[in-house]
Design goal:
By secondary structure, the chain is α+β, with helices and mostly antiparallel strands. The protein is built from 2 helices and 9 strands. A hairpin with a 2-residue loop joins strand 6 and strand 7.
Length: 166
Amino acid sequence: MIAPRMAGWVALAGLVWLTGCNNRANTIDASGGAYREVSTPVQLVAQARPPILDLPVPINFRLDETRSRNFAAAGARYVDHLYRGSADKFAVARFYKRHMPISRWVLVTDMFVQGDIMLDFEKESERCRIIISQGGLFHNCSIKVQLWTTGRIPAAQAGKKGQGKK
C-alpha cells in the first residue's frame, strides 16, 4: 500500500522537476525598460542525406511517402514532397533561409499568410516553394516542398548538323 503511494509521489516530483528544467540558455533583457526573459533561438540541423540532394530537410522530419512524388525527364524536374516532424515553424523558416543558399538557392519571397510561412527560392531555371504549416495531432509541423523547372527547357543535341561518320 505504501509503495504505490510513494511511486506516485516520486513520479509527480519527477514531472515537476522536468517541467521546471529546460536546456535553453536564458538571459535577462532590460533594454525596453522592463525585465524580460530572452531565449536563444533554436537552430535546426540538416539531414546528412535528404531525399533530394539540393533540398535540405531538418533532421527530425520524415518524408510522408503516401503524399509525395517527384520525377525528372528531358532536363526538367518536378518535386512535390510533404515532410512531417516536430519543431517550431519559425525555427523551420530560419533553417531554410540559412541552408538553401548553401545549395545555391536564392530567396526571392518570404511571406506569412494566415498562419503559414511561404518561402520562394530560385536557382538557374528552377523555382522552389516551401510552405511551413502547423501540423496535426502527432506532428506539430509540416513542410511542403514544391520544385519545378521554369522557362524553356534546352533541347538535347544528339549531334551537330554537318557532322557525319568518317
